[in-house]
Amino acid sequence: MAIQERRERARQERERLIVDAARELAEAEGWDAVTTRRLAERIEYSQPVLYSHFKGKDAIMAAVAVDGFAELAAELRAARGAAADPLTGVATAYLAFAETRPVLYEAMFTHSVDLAFARPDTPAALQAGFGELREAVRPRAGDDDPAVLTEVFWAALHGLATLTRGGRLPREIQEQRLALLLARF
Amino acid sequence: MAIQERRERARQERERLIVDAARELAEAEGWDAVTTRRLAERIEYSQPVLYSHFKGKDAIMAAVAVDGFAELAAELRAARGAAADPLTGVATAYLAFAETRPVLYEAMFTHSVDLAFARPDTPAALQAGFGELREAVRPRAGDDDPAVLTEVFWAALHGLATLTRGGRLPREIQEQRLALLLARF
DNA sequence: CGCGTTCTCTAGCGGCGCTAGGATCGCTGT
DNA sequence: ACAGCGATCCTAGCGCCGCTAGAGAACGCG
């Protein structure tokens, strides 16, 4: 039986290799450069092995996105603990994440439509990130439902992040925008 | 000289034909189905004709997006005039636009990164839509800069629209979210 | 009518995501 | 020790993509 375990271990290592390679390639040259051929070349296997791990290219990107959600959750947690005002800290950390890891943020939100949210099989990392936001919002909720208010706050952050990233909003006064948003919460 | 004018007119008609065909095809089968081959077939010309009008496929999508901005601006204007509370009306109209014309909204915000915003050559329709939002926000701005506050409000709406569209937020309680957002403005 | 420009098409390039089918490797039972 | 047999992996190729070069047709003009 140990043989199968070793094989399974090797499989999972290779799966990590694929996901990491996809992320590195995307961070180096953008998601357009992430093709199955280039990915296969980078991991030194042939194309078809990708399909023995993932259903298709989208699934690989979704795996990168899940990693991204885990990192985002970790950074939000750290920011909530460290900042004088948790909500400010979390919001700043969120915008910083989107700004410094654009490739991850794209995978998480712009691409990969079929990641289950608010479902039984939702990856834990996704829930965790939202949880961090909710705990930061809760003290400011007043009579409002904290969960729903968190959704609104998250949407505002997401909007700021994506509109800025897409060149729709000039980057320079982002701090001012964030201040106005926080003042209203 | 009249001959050149006639030709120019025909060219512009064909350009409209291309943009409309792209939009119709996208609305019928999604943007993935909009390929240069299928588009050429639909307008009953060969592929290279497309490239005598537009630099590439992205430019065609950008043209559809500009049409979208014009429609959005028109709907926001109507909503601002008709609603009891302008801000509520405009916000509702914005979310309704994203919900009922997902294909246009995608072209405007998810794709086509290289539409100039806040630049000399920014299409007027883009400015107009933002102007409608700004006029609706202004009475609620208090001591805040209305333009910046409008950006924040727009970002919040955009976030709600995209997160809902991507399945990140369940659609059912969108009205409740909008109420919470409006209450904070 | 013949000429030159202007337009449009056929054909093809390199690359894409993905898959079928055969070769090869490594474990297993005799 | 070795033949048999799955599991594993690669070569080759399908149909499609965005885009372009170059041939040929259509059209206004002298």
Using brief descriptors, characterize the structure shown.
homodimer, 185 residues, mainly alpha, Arc Repressor Mutant, subunit A, Tetracycline Repressor, domain 2, 2 domains, 9 helices, DNA-binding
Main sheet attributes: strand count, strand direction, barrel closure of chain A: none
The parts of chain A where pLDDT drops under 50 for at least 5 residues are none
Name the structural class of chain A: mainly alpha
Radius of gyration of chain A (CA) equals: 19 Å
Rounded mean pLDDT score of chain A: 93
- The amount of beta strand of chain A, in percent, is under 5%
Largest interface: A-B, 35 and 35 residues
User: What count of domains describes the coordinates of chain A?
Assistant: 2
Q: Look up the CATH topology of the largest domain in chain A.
A: Tetracycline Repressor, domain 2
Domain HTH tetR-type (chains A, B): 12-72
Protein name (chains A, B): TetR/AcrR family transcriptional regulator
Keywords (chains A, B): DNA-binding, Transcription, Transcription regulation
InterPro entries (chains A, B): Homeodomain-like_sf, HTH-type_TetR-like_transc_reg, HTH_TetR, MT1864/Rv1816-like_C, Tet_transcr_reg_TetR-rel_C_sf
